[in-house]
Amino acid sequence: MTEFPSATDYQQALQNPALAFTHPGMQQATFTKDSWGLPEPVTGSSAAVFQGTIGADCYALRCYTRADASSRERYEALDRYVATHGLTDYVANVAWFEDAVRVRHATWPVLRMQWIEGRILDEYVGYLVEKRNITALGMLAAQWRELVKTLQDAQFAHGDLQHRNVLVDQGARLRLVDFDSVWMPTLDGQPPPTESGHDNFQHPSRNGTSGWGRWTDTFSGLVIYLSLLALASDPGIWLPLNTGENLLFEKKDYVPPFETNAWKHVFNVPDPEVTRLAGKLRECCAPGWVASQSLEDAIAPTWWQRPGGTAAPAPAGSPASSSAPEAPTWRYVPTQGGLPGTPAASMPPPPSTETFTGAASFRGPGTSEGIRLPSAPASGPPRRAASGSGSRQGKWWEPTVPPAGPRPAGPPARGIGAVSPHWAMAVWSVILFWPLGILAVMYANQVKPSVASGNLAAAQKASSRVTVMFWISVAIAVVIALAIIGAATPSSG
User: CA 387 from chain center: how many Å?
Assistant: First the structure.
């Protein structure tokens, strides 16, 4: 099998688009650069994506690093299906170009996608959590449910619904990207994709050869919907459960005995609807479960959970309540708008790029650790980021954690510590190095006349003085450097 180029190979080639691309339009592309001035890739398990501007339009150019990731036939079928089934509001426009880029003495395909200005789902959710905007979180949950319903009504499955493949654009609308695992009726009967989606959003038994079909998105759609609805009721569960590679649930949570922290936190959310949906998700985690219906049918309340019915027993293993209600309060979440009883409002757009203080490349299989936002002052005691595996240290939605215990105030800086080290260095250089340099030049000027007159002893004496001046200068420079470093370094006491 032919080895595809790496992300670094593409990065080097795209420094000169006019030579790298065979397609005339792409030859005029200009790319977003990293801190080294090179085209900046967003790398994943099967491709490297570059943000490029061609004329007045901005695109994401997807350059593949694996031969089995996708094909021209799949994306041409996708483009036709989306256009004829009213899905263009959710699915970005795509175009496949065969043999479009020259790398390592060969040509390779490029997928050109519409660039969507916005934030990936977990970044946006973290932003809403930080602002304690539970109304917007509830509206986001309702919008997500409507999106999945629209896709499944159109017999369309994304195949890899996860936090990094869902974007929130500047109009606060949900958009989808990365369609290598897509299913449509026109692809039925073809070999399934080699990727089975992000483990933290897929059923444990799903792999590349099973679970791919019309209802593929039911499980991942429920994972995301439940997570958003739970956060709308209790944003405080975000910090202990989000790792940067999920929303609330991880792969380990989908296997018995369902006693992980995620289940404990979610079942403790004071919302009967969240408890009911958590029970539904746990039912779907059964080893032999196969998606055979839509998300709407999967989460529909049973007859005894509807108004006027009889209370259903609490899911096995869920925390027992000493004062359980006689019947659960069934709440229907509409597929448009916010939660019942909330005033009409709109979701806030994600923070603009200009408000971000820095960016890291997408991490993990296809990702970014996130783009960091300046955190607003948090009320109450600050929380410390988790440590060890799955740590989220430094996330932009977490308040800054001060060192344990107050640091005693040291005495005011004196001498060179009271000014900038750079100024101190300049001052000492003038005070000490100039006189030493003048003496060295004077002694050096005595060497040549002494040699010319045959007075070798005087020449040798002058030369020795020059050497002494040199080493004195070096010693003084070292002492000054150490003093400056010491003055600029805070005391640990």
Answer: 18
Q: Name the token pair of 468.
A: 């002494």
Q: Is residue 354 predicted with pLDDT exceeding 80?
A: no
Alpha-carbon distance of 441 to 346, in angstroms, equals 77
Interatomic CA distance for residues 47 and 70, integer angstroms:
10
The closest of 208, 190, 187, 188 to 199, measured between CA atoms, is: 208
Nearest-angstrom CA–CA distance, 486 and 480: 10
Determine whether 247 is exposed, middle or buried from the number of CB atoms within 10 Å of its CB (0-12, 13-18, 19+).
buried
- How far apart are alpha carbons 474 and 480 in whole angstroms? 10
Question: What does the angle CA 393 – CA 168 – CA 331 come to, to the nearest 5 degrees?
Answer: 95
pTM of the predicted protein model: 0.65
**Residue 192 confidence (pLDDT):** 81
Question: Which domain covers residue 287, as residue numbers?
Answer: 118-187+195-318+329-356
CATH number of domain containing 22: 3.30.200
- Count of Cβ atoms closer than 10 Å to residue 320 Cβ: 7
Neighbours of 315 (CB within 10 A): 17
Rounded to whole angstroms, the Cα distance separating 246 from 163 reads 7
The domain tally of the chain equals 3
Residue ranges of E strands in 16-114:
30-31, 41-43, 47-54, 57-64, 94-103, 106-114
CA atoms lying within 13 Å on the CB side of residue 291: 26
The CA-atom distances, in angstroms, between 262 and each of 39, 90, 200, 242, 285 are 39, 30, 12, 10, 14
Beta carbons within 8 Å of 437's beta carbon, 6+ residues apart: 473
Q: Provide the token pair at 281.
A: 């998700």
Tokens of 326: 């006689």
Residue 384 confidence (pLDDT) above 50? no
pLDDT in tens, 241-253: 999 999 999 999 9
> Do 152 and 291 have their domain in common?
yes
